[in-house]
Amino acid sequence: MGPSGDDTIYLDHAATTPLDPEVLAAMVPYLTRSFGNPSSIYRLGQEARAAVDDARSTVARVLGCSPAEIVFTSGATESDNLAVKGIAWRRRLERERGRNAAMPHVVTSAIEHHAVLHAVTSLEHQGFPVTYVRPDPEGIVSPEQIEAVIRPETCLVSVMYANNESGAIQPVAEIGRIARERGIPFHVDAVQGAGLLPLGVDDLGCDLLALSAHKFYGPKGVGLLYVRRGTPIRWQQDGGGQEGGRRGGTENVVGIVGLAAALAKAEAQRPGYVDHCAALRDRLEAGIKATIPDAVINGPSDPARRLPNNLNVALPGIQGETVLLNLDMQGVAASAGSACTTGNSEPSHVLLAMGLGEERCRESLRFTVGRSTTADQIDETIEILAETVARVRGLAGVA
Ligand SMILES: *Cc1c(COP(=O)(O)O)cnc(C)c1O
């Protein structure tokens, strides 16, 4: 049985993951008896406060930072917006005070999640110059190219840890060194790395880092932003002074508890999870190559540079969406491009930026395996996919 309680073969873990039952169990008391407001001084409030404090310490241990450097948010979209706009607006304020002459410049990559990309575009509309660095054809952003576009007035570099579509793992530590040498804050959207890649912020060399609980078997609607002590940032949400005055609003206690429990478990299980995912992903890749010989893998050819759970593949001559609908009818959930763009058939901005043609983008499918995925499910998927492709190609031949 799949995580959804039916027999769905769920191969879309980059879009979201099911809530871990142990995480749910840790959350339940804060949905029921421990309902206090962490800002209240009586026992019920202090119980909630202690839960939030514990969660912050747990998260800080995983990231190798101080608890005071963690800000809980409503998810990675908020964290990315806070990082990108918070840094840029703070720098603009300093410029208005005459400390900086030129309008602050932002460097990012063309393959960022829309949470970063659209935040940066909004800055561009406000007059901030922006450079979008394109990846190589395998989807990897070059540190040399980042270095080449940095200007004296660059106020932020933002490059994701691993791409949610191609699975390409980015050389963030090298980019971090380049930014650090120049005193430029470096933001990393690390959402897809949780549970699969190390998250130590000092090794990554970042000043800001975003995570979202629902991508690592936690609840939806809660995330965090790590902000290195001393990073100049303009906080955005004014209110009751929660999160040390950095993000007003009564804490999402139950979500924060769930995020911390999920992150601690994902980190503890990481080596085994990586092996589990890589074996299933490789099985799927081999099966597709054997049954659909003209299938083309998108993203890094070196599997070590791809997330262990990711397979992005183009099936020449067939629309990805047609295949997806057929897979769905047979109980297999996968994705064409990112979930955020499904429903509009614009080709993926990530695959386009890698230099793939529009046609190849529309032929592309993304499979992302996870905890509940089994070898039997992979074999069944390979079979269903091969049948679907044969049927669709047969119909195309008749027509
Ligand atoms: C899912 C995702 C986000 C957005 O996270 P939400 O918590 O759903 O807002 C941001 N960046 C990446 C890379 C993602 O995969």
Can you give keywords for this protein?
399 residues, alpha/beta, Aspartate Aminotransferase, domain 1, Aspartate Aminotransferase, domain 2, seven-stranded mixed beta sheet, 13 helices, 12% strand, binds pyridoxal-5'-phosphate
CATH C-level category of the largest domain:
Alpha Beta
Question: Which structural class do the helices and strands define?
Answer: alpha/beta
Query: How much helicity do the residues have?
Result: 40-55%
How much of the polypeptide forms β-strand, as a percent range?
A: 5-15%
Radius of gyration: 22 Å
Report how far the terminal alpha carbons are from each other. 39 Å
Low-confidence regions: none
Strand elements, count: 12
Compact summary:
This protein is of the alpha/beta class and 399 residues long.
Structure description:
- By secondary structure, the chain is of the alpha/beta class.
- It has two domains: 9-19 and 269-396, Aspartate Aminotransferase, domain 1, CATH 3.90.1150.10; 21-268, Aspartate Aminotransferase, domain 2 (3-Layer(aba) Sandwich).
- It has helices spanning 21-31, 43-63, 76-96, 114-125, 143-149, 172-181, 201-204, 253-268, 270-291, 320-329, 349-353, 358-362, 375-398, and strands spanning 9-10, 70-73, 105-109, 130-133, 154-158, 186-189, 208-212, 223-227, 296-298, 310-314, 332-333, 364-368.
- The strands form three sheets. Strands 2-8-7-6-5-3-4 form a seven-stranded mixed sheet, sandwiched between helices. It has a three-stranded antiparallel sheet with strand order 9-10-12.
- Helix 7 (201-204) links the parallel strand 6 and strand 7.
- The longest helix is centred in the last third of the chain and has 24 residues, at 375-398.
- Bound molecules: pyridoxal-5'-phosphate.
- Pyridoxal-5'-phosphate binds at residues 75-77, 113, 115, 160, 164, 189, 191-192, 212, 215, 223.
